[in-house]
Amino acid sequence: MKKQKKRILSSIFMGLLVLFFYAPIIYTIVFSFNDSRSLTKFAGFSLQWYEKMFSNRTMMESVFYTIITAVIATAVSTFVGTITAIGLSKSKAVLRTIVEQVNNLPIMNPEIVTAIGLLMFYSAIHIRKGFLTMLLAHIMFCIPYVILSIAPKLRTLDQNLADAAMDLGCTPWQALFKVIVPQIKPGIVSGALIAFTMSFDDFVISYFVTGNGVSNISILVYTMSKRINPSINALSTLIIVIISVFLLFYNLIPAIAEKRSAKKVKEISE
Questions:
Q1: Residues 6 or more apart from 239 whose CB is under 8 A from it?
Q2: Within a 13 Å sphere around the CA of 233, how many CA atoms are in the beta-carbon half?
Q3: Nearest-CA neighbor of 208 among 139, 132, 118, 109?
Q4: pTM of structure
Q5: Are 206 and 218 in contact (CB under 8 A)?
């Protein structure tokens, strides 16, 4: 009886926890189809807020800047972070330790401190704030996350792997891209996903380093927080759907490929 009660209580607790996490998301999705501007009373089904979202030029520009910044920042930070992590794995222990500690500073540092530091730096060198300053800031704070994701994978590799590849006829670049990179691919993908998420979601740093006429979704939502605009619900719903579909495919495709591979092996063995 005691075990059964514990199971029931555990199930109730897990149910409440899941509800706590997902209730706001479900609420946002439901009220994105609301026929009125109310955020508390559902008046009927309507797609008007999606129409207004797509017709709102400011909102579409914010979506564009958010996506283009996240994509470029992810690509650059993933490339730079990967090369840096590989280079550090071949460096002396003292240098590697120092660089790793420095790399952890932007991660541990509060965002507001980083934002003020970048603002003062741009002001000191007289750079006009805008898209470029926001993009550079995003690349800067994304690189440490990529290095942090790749470094553990590199520690598990045999240090003589690249030398063995070059002994067998590979050039240094071939050894890098055909031997080392495939071995650390999970770390690279994880780092890229974290970098994209951090860039897409950033508000504090972006708010301090961007200029007039350039804003991402986070800044747009902040400027609209003082007045009710259900179009934000529509935009949030689209983002949720896109992320959910991406995660679904990201998890299903490897499973399907593994299933097909196992089926082929079974057919060959038979």
A1: 217
A2: 24
A3: 118
A4: 0.82
A5: yes
Going by C-beta distance under 8 Å and a sequence separation of 6 or more, which residues neighbour residue 224?
232
What angle do helix axes 48-55 and 57-89 make, rounded to 10 degrees? 70
Q: With H, G, I as helix, E, B as strand and everything else as coil, classify residue 38.
A: coil
The pLDDT, as a whole number, for residue 1 is 61
Number of residues written out for the chain: 270
Distances from the Cα of 7 to the Cα of 1, 16, 17, 132, 191, angstroms:
10, 14, 15, 54, 37
Q: How far apart are CA 124 and CA 128, in angstroms?
A: 11
Question: Does 250 fall in a domain?
Answer: no
Let me know if residue 23 belongs to a domain.
no
214-252 pLDDT per residue, tens: 888 888 888 877 776 788 888 888 888 888 888 888 777
Amino acid code (one letter) for 227: R
Contact (CB, 8 A) for 198 and 141: yes
- Can you give the residue range of the structural domain that contains 158? 58-231
What is the tens place of the pLDDT at every residue in 87-114? Answer: 888 888 888 888 888 888 888 888 899 9
174: domain CATH number is 1.10.3720.10
Domain-located, residue 93: yes
Q: How many domains is the chain partitioned into structurally?
A: 1
DSSP secondary structure, 98-109, as one string: HHHHHHHHHHHS
Please answer whether residues 86 and 154 qualify as being in contact, where contact means their C-beta atoms are separated by less than 8 angstroms. Answer: yes
Q: pLDDT tens, 176-225?
A: 788 888 888 888 988 999 999 999 989 999 999 988 778 888 888 888 77
